[in-house]
Amino acid sequence: MGWLRYLARIPTNKSIGMTRVFDEDMSAGFGTRAIHAGQRPEPLAGAIMTPVYLTSTYVQEGLGQNKGYEYARGKNPTREAFERNIAALENGRHGFAFSSGMGCLDSIMKLFRAGDHVVCGENVYGGTFRLFDKLLQHMGFSFSYVDTRDPQRVADAMTPATRLLLVETPSNPLMRVTDIAAMAEIAHRNNATLVVDNTFASPYFQRPLELGADIVYHSTTKYLNGHSDMIGGCAAVRDDDLAARLQFIHNAAGAVAGPFDAWLALRGTKTLHLRMRQHDANGREIAKWLVEQVGHENVMYIGLPTHPQHELVKRQMSGFGGMISVELGTKERAAYVLGRVRIFALAESLGGVESLISQPAGMTHASVPPERRAAMGLSDGLVRLSGGVEDVGDLLADLEQAFEGIPGSGKRSAPKTRERDTIGSGAP
Ligand SMILES: Cc1ncc(COP(=O)(O)O)c(C=O)c1O
């Protein structure tokens, strides 16, 4: 690809061999891919589940003679099965499993060099901002943070030195949506790579590679694994040359997923389609209930027709999921609810089968300076809910008792302190 010419700076390593999807997996539907893609019965006993290959190295038959596996940082059969699986789910060709979402992004950043400029969405996970602001900025990268809801602002931020456009959509925690196809057009017109963090949507609801993104990545920790029992990251790409460079980095920098974590994630993706449908059903009900309490202008849920970008959501996604943020106006009101929930657990993270609740300003986004948080509308009164797959009646009853007697309000009276959305079609 023309715009990826600068990648020639990164070597490739042909001896390891690329993790590539099995072509025959790609004709199956999403649920079938989720359960089977990348996996074949194990040849020794026919075990239907991919074994956990707990090994650091592989015995070689002679010098230069091996079964395609030399050392487990480079390749591990359990990890490969997960990598093929996630590549198939994202409708890509090559997958890479990392030790965490941040390890994945850090490795992606090694495609670039000191002097390169990055255009990044202003509302991204706090750890993404921290990696850029506290580490990579001091290694010669420069960053512009832009409201990527507006393609014109993104186009205006591109410079001749821009090599990367990074967006997270829907965004954490403000549930803002970016037009991925428009971003691909802007990035490629400017010889830059488009990288999309697809953690909030999961490939069940959104597949950025189909919309023109070059790299899609995830915190596997979240919906893909879905059971809150591991930390991991993964990326998928279509372009063989880009994959070869990423593979070199994967092995050379070494932030690879361990075999047991890869196995847990692989077990998780088998139910991704089922879980996402339930997250979506519960998310809609919870959002509806929250709207009744605090008004739609204080509920950030992409499934609400009043979400300012609901039309774009319907165009590029096939569902809405379980992530909801709600503006309660003050930290005290947020703390009141967070202190009273019983089923929702007060915790960082999201995307597990269990419901979680958090205050992003003091938790996931504490590393974003307060002025920056205020400028983008992320207040101390914002509460983020990750709706799980429990019985929704129990979740609503839990919220009902947690909101009861919330200071300073009757129903529908949460203070409206959030900076209002400035673009979008029609929401008041
Ligand atoms: C949207 C998003 N991207 C990336 C990450 C980082 O992933 P990890 O915690 O697996 O390193 C997170 C973590 O919360 C996230 O929410």
Task: Report strand %.
Answer: 5-15%
Q: What is the number of helices?
A: 14
Radius of gyration: 22 Å
- Ions and ligands: pyridoxal-5'-phosphate
Widest beta sheet: strand line-up: 1-7-6-5-4-2-3
Largest sheet: 7 strands, mixed
Instruction: Please state the structural category.
Output: alpha/beta
Mean pLDDT comes to 94
Q: Helix content range of the residues, please? A: 25-40%
- Low-pLDDT stretches are 411-428
Q: How far is the first residue's CA from the last residue's CA? A: 43 Å
Query: H/E order of the elements?
Result: HHEHEHEHEHEHEEHHHEHEHEEHEH
Number of strands: 12
Descriptive report:
By secondary structure, the chain is of the alpha/beta class. The protein is built from 14 helices and twelve strands. A seven-stranded mixed β-sheet has the order 1-7-6-5-4-2-3, with helices on both faces. Helix 2 packs parallel to helix 9 (259-269). The model is unreliable at 411-428 (pLDDT under 50). Pyridoxal-5'-phosphate (PLP) is lined by residues 100-102, 125, 127, 168, 172, 197, 199-200, 219, 221, 231, 233, 364.
